[in-house]
Amino acid sequence: MRMDGNQAVVIGGGAAGMMAAAAAAENGRPVILLEKNEKLGKKLYITGKGRCNVTNACERDKFFENIVSNPKFLYSAFHTFDNKRLENFLEENGCRLKEERGERVFPVSDHASDVTAAFERFLKKNGVQVRLRSEVRAIETEDEKITGVRLADGSVIPAGTVIVATGGLSYQSTGSSGDGHRMARELGHKVTDCAPALVSLETEVDWCKKLQGLSLKNVSLTMSCGKKKLFQGFGEMLFTHYGVSGPLVLSASSFYGRKKGTNAVVLTIDLKPALSEEQLDKRMLRDFEENRNRQFKNALGGLYPAKLISVMIERSGIDPEKKVHEVTKQERRRLVELTKAFTLQVRGKRGFDEAVITQGGVSVKEVNPSTMESKLVRGLYFAGEVLDLDGLTGGFNLQIAWSTGYLAGKCSTERGGQVE
User: For the residues 75-86, what does the mean pLDDT come to?
Assistant: First the structure.
C-alpha cells in the first residue's frame, strides 16, 4: 500500500470504525484502521450479553422515535445506510441474522464474534491495513486541514482524511477512555457534557434490597419530575440491592437528568397495566372473597410475586394479621392505587463502568450531517458514539454507529483528501 497523504486513517476499530474503513475501502481509497486494543470490535463482544443486537428491523419513523439525542442530525446517515443495508452487508459477508422480539436483530449463532469476523473478511478482501495495539495521541493539521496522525510511539502516519470513531466513555475496559473527545477539543471542537446512559438507577428507598433479584415482566414504567413526564414505557425491569435495572429502566435512564431542575425524579410502576383501577378492584374482591377467612398476609399470592408481598403490605398500611373479610373498602382501594402506582424516588444513575453507552459528545452543530465532516477542520470526520447521539435499547445505538460510520467512510473518499 502506498504510504502517502492520500490515504484515509480511521481511529478506532469498533462498530463505527470498522464500518467507516469498509465504506472508504469500498470506494477504492487506501485505508489504515488503527485500534489500540489487541483485537477489533472489543465492545461488540459484550453487547446484547455477548450476542450482539446488531440493529432493529423497524420502519424508519419508529427508528427515529427511539433516538434520544439529535435525531434530525441522523436523517442523512440513516437514509444512506439504513438497517436493511446493514443486514444485507452482514449476510453477504457470512454473518447470518435472525429477528427476535421487539424487531431486534441478532446473529443466528448468538455470537458477537461472527459480526466482527464478517467485517474482518470484508476489510481484508478490500485491502484495508489493520494495525492493532496502535494508540493515536494526536491528529496533525496544517491550515485547518488534516495532514496525519501521531501515534503513542511518536511516529506520524500521513493522511488526507481522518475519521474519529473512538467511542464514548462507557465500558472503559474496552478502550472507551474519551480519547476522541480530547482530540476533538484540541482541534477546536465543542464536546457537550457527557453522562452515563442506558444504565441502572439508584433509588432513595432501602426496601429495594428486600426485592433484590425480583424481575417484573409486562409492567408499565413512568418517570416524572414534578408535573413533567420524562419517560413512559412497557416491558421488563429488575430490582437490585441499590435500586432498579432491566430494559425498561435502562431506557428511562437516558431521560434522567435532562432539564431536571430541583424537583425530585420519581418512578411510578403500574404492576397491572392491563387492568383499569375498577377492573383491578373487582379482581381483588374476587380474590378476597375466595380467601375471606385467611389472614391478609396469606391472601395475596394470586396478585403479586412472593418477594413483593411483604413490601406491598408494608406500603399499604394494612395490618398483615387482619382477616381478609375485615379489610375495609377504603383499605382495598388504597391497595388498588398502590398496585397501579408503585412509586420510587431516584437518587441518581450508576457510573460509566456500568453504562451501555455515553450520552453527550462532539457537538453535532459543528459536524455536517450530510457527510459527517467537521465544519472546522477539512478532512476530519466523526462517527459513532464519539458524537452527541444516542438511542434507546434494542439495536438503535449500533445502527447509529453503522450509519454514521458508513457515511463518514463514503464521504471521506469523495472529498479526495489529497494533501497539498
Answer: 98
Residue 267's φ and ψ, nearest 5 degrees, are -100, 130
Beta bridge partners of 9: 32, 162
Angle between helices 15-26 and 113-125 (to 10 degrees): 30
From the number of C-beta atoms within 10 Å of its C-beta (0-12, 13-18, 19+), residue 103 rates as middle
What does the pLDDT read at residue 260? Answer: 57
Phi and psi dihedrals of 285, rounded to 5? Answer: -60, -45
- Measured CA to CA, the distance from residue 281 to residue 329 in angstroms comes to 10
**Amino acid (one-letter) located at 24:** A
Q: Please, what is the end-to-end C-alpha distance for the chain in angstroms?
A: 20
Nearest residue to 364 via CA among 384, 379, 341: 384
198-219 mean pLDDT: 92
Q: Cα dist. 308→83, 212, 328 in Å?
A: 40, 10, 22
Chain centre distance of CA 30: 32
Nearest CA to 223 out of 195, 203, 196, 194 is that of 203
- For 149-156, the CB contacts below 8 A with 24+ separation are 149/9, 149/11, 149/34, 151/34
CB burial class (10 A; 0-12, 13-18, 19+) of residue 232? middle
The rounded distance, in Å, linking the Cα atoms of 420 and 418 is 6
The neighbour count for residue 295, using CB atoms within 10 Å, is: 14
Please check whether residue 134 is in contact with residue 151, taking contact to mean a CB–CB distance below 8 angstroms: yes
pTM of the predicted structure, to 2 decimals? 0.91
**DSSP 3-state helix, strand, coil percentages of the chain (rounded to 5)?**
35, 25, 40
pLDDT tens digits for range 225-240 = 989 999 999 999 999 9
Strands 161-164 and 8-11, sheet pairing = parallel
Give the whole-angstrom CA distance, residue 86 versus residue 51: 17
Task: Report the chain's mean pLDDT, rounded to a whole number.
Answer: 93
Is residue 216 classed as helix, strand or coil in its secondary structure? strand
Read off the pLDDT of each residue in 323-340 and give the average, rounded to a whole number. 96
Summarize pLDDT for 13-70 with one digit per residue, the tens: 999 999 999 999 998 889 999 999 999 998 898 787 789 999 999 999 999 999 999 9
Residue 99 in grid coordinates: 429477528
